[in-house]
Amino acid sequence: xxYDLTIPFARYVAMNYNQLSMPFKRYxxxxxxxxxxxxxxxxxxxxxxxxxxxxxxxxxxxxxxxxIYSTVFENLNVPVEIKIxxxxxxxxxxxxxxxxxxTNRMMDITIAIDKLDKIGIEKVKAELLERGLNGDQxxxxxxxxxxxxxxxxKIAELKKLFDGNATGLEGIxxxxxIISHLTNLSSPLLIDCTLARGLNYYTGTIIExxxxxxxxxxxxxxxxxxxxxxxxxxxDVPGVGISFGVDRxxxxxxxxxxxxxxxxxxxxxxxxxxxxEEAEKAFEMMQQLRRAGVxxxxxxxxxxxxxxxxxxxxxxxxxxxILGSKELQEKVINVKNLSAGxxxxxxxxxxxxFDFNT
Length: 358
Fold this sequence. Notes:
Elements (H helix, E strand, L loop, with lengths): L5 H10 L8 E10 L11 E10 L5 H16 L4 E7 H10 L6 H12 L1 H15 L4 H11 L5 H11 L4 H16 L7 E3 L13 E7 L8 E5 L14 E7 H11 L12 E3 L4 H16 L4 E3 L6 H10 L4 E4 L2 H6 L1 E6 L4 E6 L11
Parallel strand pairs: 3-4, 8-9, 8-10
Antiparallel strand pairs: 1-2, 2-7, 3-5, 5-6, 6-7, 10-11, 11-12
């Protein structure tokens, strides 16, 4: 069972490194599994859709991935905030806390910070205390988390806090590059000092997409991971990627009622069932339409018009085809557009040429 799609992707890159043209870009959608307690927005099985670029350290890739988030959620009509931070800044924060060489201490800090939205600042401070940080170190972390203002104001505050720290300043410059080159997004792009993303393979930019006006966790996230293939014997291959939480996006679309009426590519034509001989002929004509690429179905039983009309309306089937005993004798069929309320009569040989996409 896969925990995520990134680690298996890194393994694939490592196994096929000499055959891939770098930089290598890919997208992938598959189910993944987590040992979560099922609740709204948290599932033990769910789908992720990932987009990654490996073999390049260029920040242009981060620009493209943020733009993908903005474009996708604009097309879905889902208002989001895209939040960014940088793990180099978090590493510099660990250095300020006297943990420059302590990888575990940095993870203690980032894991605790990552819970801020869920448990609040006081419980984060308590967890940091339990993890062995002292009062002064926790105050330093709290002052970092309290940095507010515009993106430009946050950059200025971060430069003050990490003055003289090369790692921190490098992370700040990467943040500044991204916000200064993405000025026309349809979604707000916000520096968020509280964004940590607890996975320890991130090395630079980290990104999250958060739906507005919906009480749910992030609906997308990712970041830069510049040595993930080293786990599989091929070190120093840079990469960056993002993921869409498909199930959470579905939940958001449902809550906001943003599914368009024509989102499905389901049945286009429902043939009414009006008797044994009529249904046999309708079934024959249905096969002709299916061979022509038109999705259609025959109602499962001979019953009242009203019930068959209601079935078509409930399933949002745009056309109904009505073949009764009189039409069977005259070798014609009535086709009705339910949304337009228009009806035409077609010969048996003409129905296959009718445009059911209008």
